[in-house]
Give the backbone structure.
Amino acid sequence: MCAGGSAEPPAAGRATRYLRGIGQLARRYDAFVLDQWGVLHDGTTPYPGAINCLEQLHARGKRVVILSNSGKPGEANAEFIAGMGFDRALFEAVVSAGDDARDALRTGRDAFHRKLGSRAFVLARDSDLDLCSWFGVQRADEVEHADFLLVLSIDSPRQSLAGWEPVLRRALGLGLPMLCANPDFARTGAHGTLFEAPGLIARRYAELGGEVGLHGKPDPGIYQACLRRFACARSRVVAIGDSIDHDVLGARNAGLASVLIASGVHRDELGIAAGEPPDAGRCEQLFARAGVTPDYVASLFRW
């Protein structure tokens, strides 16, 4: 029997289940779709118990794919995770929002992507600017020379939404569309610090009246790249993440059960320290604000 027993998903109208650990799900699910930031690591260090939890899943023959809203290639994310001590054998692949955006750009997936053009003004940290060649577009040095805006990352706190505001307004005046390859609103850092994430830029541009195309969670389409790797029914797949707006909503949109990791981006909102069990009442307030409820809640991704 798995550590902690099994956990059945809540029926319609039933309360969210609060887990002691992910081991309680081992009997119920055969495949796991995992977020990385806020679940596995804080950008520099694995969270306590995260490597062991993956090892326990692997030992029981569970299938694991990491689904990230990173604007970088999935393989680059896999190397990044492995560099923190996660054995590559513990997960099958990393699927990224960047992968999906690149595919849409290169194939002209729909009318929006076909009209974007070949010159992009990139909003990203300096180290990510060279990703233009991977996306198959030229980088414009000025907004006035661009066909569209490409949003990949924010080097917070050096870069910020407020700092990009003048650029957004110039682009809006030119009627430039925006492609955002990382729709997250926040990312976690060491000691629970929260930083702005690129999704805030996309949301602001839409508020100003700009046309925005988003890739990544919560769009259900990106989950297909994960599900194609699993030879099991959708009812045997669970998605685990720390964002109610992206991971939990995305799982619901894709028809999957979900686990919210409470010690991630909502840690301050829930008023907890890392690893501390959240208060159900405060969780319910979060769910009501977002208009979506996870099937399960766990404090950390630990067995």
Q: What stands out?
A: The chain has two domains: 17-69+218-298, 114-214. DSSP finds eleven helices and 14 strands in the chain. The longest strand covers residues 63-68. The longest helix spans residues 161-174.
